[in-house]
From TrEMBL:
Domain Amidase: 19-175, 250-355
Similarity section: Belongs to the amidase family.
Name the record gives this protein: Amidase
GO molecular function: catalytic activity
Pfam families xref list: Amidase
SUPFAM superfamilies, per the entry: Amidase signature (AS) enzymes (SSF75304)
Length: 377
């Protein structure tokens, strides 16, 4: 089995939750390689990223840095240089990307919490593939100092865990004054999206009282998100193409990204504003939107390796990077050997209420798994 870890560590209080950190987040004294051979000779980080310092200050025990899809610019988690983590929930299937190792480490029980980054679904997609919980916070809520690339209008650092209690513990560490309110009554809206019919049925069964709702801009928001991530990733990493050390899949995407022009970027920004307004209006009628995390079940590794592109697997997550709304994925057993993700989307800045909704649905779907606190009490 391929390891979820680039490097094993032991930093912080060994009595606290075991925390794994994606390889695009600085840890003092270790190289931040972003899963790329092109960055294998960079100098070790001189200090911890803000989020690493925060989880350590909260009592976390850092156990390692995790493998990722190269340069956080891919969705399968396949990395022929750094290694592809095994998917503990669906063996033989992709772990999802780009926070592949973070999801796999949590799913395998090698970490209680993992920090990932989500620019186009990169926390929620691997969490859904590996049968765990993943949260993309509201854009800008969690500090990105010491996270690569340094500049992004889409990227968020967020937690992955097996229980909502551990997600909430991490958010309390990362955000001063983070609070999960009581939720005696929540209004849910089920967003109608293009997906496998079994996944649509899963949403209906999980939240039967949800009000049917429609977005007119999901598809164009997905396209706009792709344009912006391409332009920003090329600005950050395009120079690495000259090294000849970037993997073939990511090199091809970077070459394509170089062709995103100013007109496409301006159009994408207009879509960003319009889509955000549309989702804000839907969230005036309900508290939480619900939809599948992925439009289909994770493919097998051999099929993903042969596929020219699986980026469309992010069609239901990427739009909410564009809009900046907080989004949470919860695992649902969808059949023998099949796991799926139920995605919840909340209002800007209401991450605490989103977590309250997640905790409620976690209890409704199944008996929650023990958090590190329960196990170590």
């Amino acid at each position: 089995m391929n390891s979820a870890f680039v490097e094993r560590l032991s930093i912080g209080d060994v009595r606290g939750p075991r925390v794994a950190v994606k390889d695009c987040i600085d840890v003092a004294g270790t190289r931040t390689g972003c899963g790329s051979r092109a960055l294998a000779e960079t100098e070790p980080a001189s200090g911890h990223a803000r989020v690493v310092r925060q989880v350590l200050d909260a009592g976390g025990h850092l156990v390692g840095k995790t493998v990722m899809h190269e340069l956080a610019f891919g969705v399968t988690g396949i990395n022929h240089w750094a290694g592809t983590p095994a998917n503990p929930a669906m063996p033989g299937h992709i772990p999802g990307g780009s926070s592949s190792g973070s999801a796999a480490a949590v799913a395998a029980g090698e970490a209680d919490v993992a920090l990932g980054t989500d620019t186009g679904g990169s926390i929620r997609m691997p969490a859904a593939c590996c049968g765990i919980i993943g949260l993309k916070p509201s854009f800008g809520l969690v500090g990105r100092q010491g996270v690569h690339p340094a500049a992004s209008s889409l990227d968020c650092v967020g937690p992955m865990a097996r229980t909502m209690d551990d997600i909430i513990w991490t958010m309390e560490a990362l955000v001063d004054g983070f609070h999960v309110p009581p939720s005696p009554h929540l209004r849910f809206g089920a967003l109608d999206v293009d997906c496998d019919s079994r996944l649509a049925s899963m949403v209906a069964a999980a939240v039967p009282a949800a009000i049917p709702m429609t977005s007119q801009r999901m598809a164009e928001a997905y396209d706009a998100g792709l344009s912006i991530i391409s332009r920003e990733t090329f600005a950050a990493f395009g120079h690495l193409l000259a090294t000849g050390r970037v993997g073939a899949d990511v090199a091809a995407r970077l070459a394509d990204a170089a062709r995103v022009d100013d007109w496409q970027l301006a159009r994408a920004e207009a879509v960003r504003a319009a889509f955000r307004t549309e989702i804000d209006r839907l969230l005036q009628r309900v508290d939480i939107l619900v939809l599948p995390t992925l439009p289909a079940f994770p493919p097998r590794l051999e099929l993903a390796a042969r596929a020219k592109a699986l980026v469309t697997m992010t069609s239901l997550v990427r739009p909410f990077n564009l809009s900046g709304h907080p989004a949470l994925t919860l695992p649902v057993v969808a059949g023998p050997g099949l796991v799926a993700g139920l995605q919840l989307v909340g209002r800007h800045g209401e991450d605490g209420l989103l977590c309250a909704a997640g905790r409620r649905i976690e209890h409704a779907l199944a008996t929650p798994r023990s958090s590190w606190r329960g196990e170590n009490a």
